[in-house]
Amino acid sequence: MSERKDEDEQVVSLLEEAPRPSDAAGLSSCSPRIVTALYCSTMAINGGMVGAFGPSLETFHRTTHLSPGQLGTAVLANRLAKLFGTVLWAWYAERISASAARGALSAPLMLRPHAAMAVGLATSAASCAVIGFTTSADALRFVVAASGVPYGFTDSACIMLTLWLWRSDAGRQRGAVAVVNVFFTGGAFVTPILVAASLHYLEATVWPAFHTLAAAAILAAAALSCTPSPAPERKSSAASRSTAELDAVSSESEPSELLPKGQSRAGVASTGDSGGGDEGYGDEGGGTPDARGKLGEEEARLGGASPDSREGSRASLGGSLGGSEGRRAAVLIAAAGVIGFFANGCEHTAATWLSPYGVRWCGLADERMAVMTSNYWTSMSAGRVAWAVGSSFVKSAWPVLLLNIALCSIGSLLFCSTSEGALLAAALSLGVGVSSIFPALVSLPAELRVEMTPQRLAVLQLMASAGALREAQPSGCGRERGHRPSPRCRRDALPVRCRHPLPDAHVLVVWAGAHRDAGRRLHCARHGLLRLSNAAAKLPADSAR
């Protein structure tokens, strides 16, 4: 009976791990690098829309006669719509994951992920086309607000699908996420240059930048609709994930004489890695050698117990570890979300209001401020490229986050000055400071072996996007062009998120201290639970004697 049961379990596991026909066809017909390139182009379009809004606000004011307050309200509506798009993707991704668990991805859904992204890009193309030529105030406000929905949907989709596409390799996954974010910044760097050139050579018009974005969005939508979507990650219970992690750690610490003849520990590790399990639960970062050795000793002691008692002990141990993982994930996502809240507020504040701030409060020309906005995105691009190159060489991301927060604080303080040099230094410092914060936050759960589910990614992106809401409406003093207000009024001209990023540093320090001790506390808890389970397994044998 036991052999028959083992054979049935092997058949079920093979059926679960076997790729579906659509997945197999997709993997054979399209390279993951090509799909990643399409995600990069989508993020470049989203970044281009964000980068084009700021330098174009003065032109929108002249052509539609909207006041700065009304334009700020339209930008605020755009950010709220982006939040809705993020929530919409989270719901959609959850439906995809649930359908994949049932093995019927196409039954409850009419659109696959790439088709849904193509619809969002087509909507963005229509929005950019209208923004480029409209002179109606109502049409501009509506289109600017509505364009936030496809922006939030496709932005979240690119990050989540990149994680799914490269889930078999943690190093490449981190690098792919960093590269995708680099292209977002690259798009935001190019469009201010187009806006500045059109303002200078085409009699103060901005339509070339938005029409270029519309054409690029149509091409990207057509390409995505023809490529297969990556398979969603199948759901697994917390107990099974923790038990699999325990198996990986204990198998590392087994004596070599217990292994089959001719097979080394490296062979066992490579076999376990090729099984297609959840990323982040393999041998990487499994604790200190002493901790792994103790776990192996305790696991070896369970070998003398009966199979039923061993399975019961391991099931209870897996459930306990699953609960601790859920608590760790909640604390991690909450802390990372707070950091993203302030960092995203700083990023979008400078991107949207740097040009109007320099024109209205510092007396600089539109073209010069458009170039300065492009320099801001250039510094951010350089920071993200540096993170994409160096992310695979760092063991932890929190020191990089600490450095970024310090640069954000310095740049925010420099915005109190009205000189062109101080504004340029502030833009460059803030650009480098916010460059790698969000890519690092997205890759942090893998360091603590926390699965990045669609819900957790949605919470992180919602908290980060909420930081951009305050920047959408500037304060209302000294709005006349060329008016030079008092230093207090100049400081109030920029939204509060750009002026007060210092709480980020406090949250980061507290979170970093908890992060450094998290692995040690987790292994201590496992060691204690293993001792309890070992004692429970020996009780029936002692009573029988």
From TrEMBL:
Q: List the InterPro entries hit by this protein, alphabetically.
A: MFS_trans_sf
User: What are the alphabetically sorted keywords of the record?
Assistant: Membrane, Transmembrane, Transmembrane helix
Q: What ranges does the record list as Low complexity composition bias?
A: 250-260
Residue ranges for the region (Disordered) are 1-28, 230-324
Asked if ATP-binding is a keyword of the record, the answer is no
Record's keyword annotation contains Membrane: yes
Transmembrane segments annotated in the record for this chain: 115-133, 139-166, 178-202, 208-227, 421-442
Q: Which domain of life is it from?
A: Eukaryota
Q: Where is the composition biased (Gly residues)?
A: 273-288
- Read off the Gene3D superfamilies from this record: MFS general substrate transporter like domains
Point to the regions of Basic and acidic residues compositional bias. Answer: 291-301
This chain belongs to the protein called Major facilitator superfamily (MFS) profile domain-containing protein
**Source species:** Emiliania huxleyi (Coccolithophore)
